[in-house]
Design brief:
- Chain A is mostly helical and 290 residues long.
- Chain A has a domain at 20-217.
- In chain A, 73% of the residues lie in helices and 2% in strands.
- Chain A is built from 11 helices and 2 strands, in the order ααααββααααααα.
- In chain A, helix 2 packs antiparallel against helix 3 (61-84), helix 2 packs parallel to helix 4 (92-114) and helix 9 packs parallel to helix 11.
- The relative contact order of chain A is 0.21.
- The termini of chain B are far apart.
- Classes of the chains: A mainly alpha (290), B alpha/beta (234).
């Protein structure tokens, strides 16, 4: 029972960051119809940025996290303007290839700058775990969980309560009519890609402090983001949030009770099952975000 | 108010509008009639900036708007109530109205306009927190019209407002459009329901295969032999 509880706790922590990744990707696909293969590289970018700021420049860890999110946002805007804007009328496969190219460039740049050896970030949190009843929690994981939850909540409010969010939803539902309402669709695309990228960078910045940072960390993150989005249904923020937790649950339980060697395979088994039995995702309502 | 000359629009290589000229005077109710695919909707889409014209010139209140963005054209005072209603299906009635007022910053007036719309359409008031996709076709059309009004336009363009609606609802929609016109807003309407449209309007244009082939007052066109045969069923 204690072991089970510990898995649930681990699942919540992992799931919160998976949800961030998934929400970022689902926003970008939902609004822009872009299959963003570079999503995992923005995750790695966030992690390396924290390493640069906190470990090399000696900036406070929490400020480094915030800077990483801002940097992810700017990086996303830059990618949108330079790579995606000229491809606006290209078909979905063409932009997908462009994003695969962007992924390769980004990953090799990381390798070039940082080398292949893993980097780790020291945090101001105490090493000794926090004991709650029979369960052990690390202070850092607890912080990651609440920070991720805060970001998910902020994204939800942004989409549902602000004018920008309303314009994003309108663009998602009917692009031409949104532009008839005076929405600057180009600006919405840039904002969407920037926000989605910022969320990926945030997930990387948070998990980078938990795990080791390597140039390849984006690969699995990208695959898992796709898994989450497929689970939750494309374009659904609520679905991506729950999808993130389900993937984490499958990984934790699979690793705990089946075989730890197959941890990363569990998620993909679920995807195969979902695609076979419910191809629109577990929670897809037709054409809706928010 | 609105003057269009030699407008040509293309979808890829297909020329849908082949050089039409028309004008709408302030306070007028102008109608474009014609068969399916004649280029009526394309003309409206071009005026509202969604489909940039291939060539030609569009002037609004003395200024050239030919190359303006959709946002800019709306800001100048032309609203477009598109064909097939096109409400945002997953947004509530209130949010749809918010989108109509997207470019406005006068919060107080937006709210009083919203209240005015709700007194005009009590059905929408009842359903203000409901998502638009769950409304009936007639309610959606009311919402689409209201959304266009929320932009506080000088000229409002309706594209097939009667499309797919029950006859009694169609009558209601036409009454609303006449009210809008009486309130001082200029109206440009595309309509397949030629007889009603011609009865309501001050001036009408007939479009066939991307060209304007006839124009005149509504009564003139109702009496026209060609129109009687081809559009009014004898």
């Amino acid at each position: 029972m204690v072991e089970f509880g510990q898995h649930i706790i681990n699942m919540l922590i992992l799931g919160s960051t998976y949800a961030l990744l998934g929400i970022g990707l689902t926003l970008i696909f939902g609004i822009m119809r872009i299959v963003n293969f570079a999503h995992g590289e923005l995750y790695a970018f966030g992690a390396y940025f924290v390493y640069l700021a906190a470990m090399m420049l000696g900036i406070n860890f929490f400020i480094a996290l915030l800077l990483a999110i801002v940097a992810g946002c700017l990086m996303g805007a830059l990618i949108e303007v330079t790579l995606l804007r000229p491809m606006r009328n290209a078909d979905i496969d063409t932009t997908m290839l462009v994003m695969i190219g962007a992924m390769i460039i980004m990953q090799n740049t990381e390798q070039f700058i940082w080398g292949g050896v893993g980097k780790s970030v020291n945090t101001p949190f105490p090493q000794a775990p926090l004991q709650v009843g029979p369960f052990f929690l690390s202070w850092l994981s607890l912080f990651v969980f609440f920070a991720a939850l805060g970001l998910i909540g902020a994204t939800y409010l942004l989409i549902n309560r602000t004018k920008l969010g309303k314009a994003m939803r309108a663009t998602f539902q009917d692009r031409d009519t949104a532009s008839l309402m005076g929405v600057n669709v180009q600006a919405i695309y840039m904002a969407t890609f920037a926000i989605g990228s910022a969320l990926a960078a945030a997930a990387g910045a948070l998990l980078g402090a938990v795990y080791v940072i390597t140039p390849q960390m984006g690969n699995l993150a990208a695959l898992k983001s796709f898994a989450i989005v497929i689970l939750g249904g494309l374009g659904s923020i609520g679905g991506a949030t729950i999808g993130g937790f389900i993937l984490a649950l499958a990984e934790e339980m699979g690793a705990g009770y089946v075989s730890s060697g197959y941890r990363d395979a569990m998620g993909f088994l679920i995807i195969i099952a979902v695609l076979l039995f419910r191809p629109t995702g577990l929670f897809a309502r037709k054409e809706r975000i928010g | 108010m609105l003057d269009i000359s030699d407008l040509v629009c293309r979808y890829g290589k297909v020329e849908a509008v082949k050089g039409i000229s028309l004008s709408v005077k302030e306070g007028q109710f102008v109608v474009l009639i014609g068969a399916n695919g004649a280029g009526k909707s394309t003309t409206l889409r071009s005026i509202s900036g969604v489909l940039p014209p291939a060539s030609g010139r569009m002037m609004f209140e003395g200024e050239d708007i030919t190359r303006c963005s959709a946002r800019d054209i709306l800001a100048r005072g032309i609203a477009h109530c598109p064909e097939g209603r096109r409400v945002f299906p997953a947004m509530t009635v209130d949010e749809n109205l918010d989108m109509g007022a997207y470019l406005r910053a006068d919060r107080g007036e937006i709210e009083s306009d919203r209240e005015r719309i709700f007194t005009m359409f009590p059905r929408l008031a009842e359903r203000r927190a409901q998502v638009a996709g769950t409304l009936s076709g007639g309610e959606q059309q009311m919402l689409a019209i209201s959304r266009a009004i929320m932009a506080k336009p000088k000229l409002i363009m309706f594209d097939e407002p009667s499309l797919g609606l029950a006859p009694n609802i169609v009558e209601q929609v036409f009454e609303i459009i006449e009210d809008i016109r009486k309130s001082g807003t200029t109206v440009l309407m595309v309509e397949q329901n030629a007889y009603s449209a011609l009865q309501m309007c001050d001036y009408a244009y007939l479009i066939e295969a991307g060209n304007i082939v006839l124009s005149g007052t509504g009564d003139d066109l109702i009496d026209n032999e060609h129109i009687r045969k081809a559009y009014l069923g004898g």
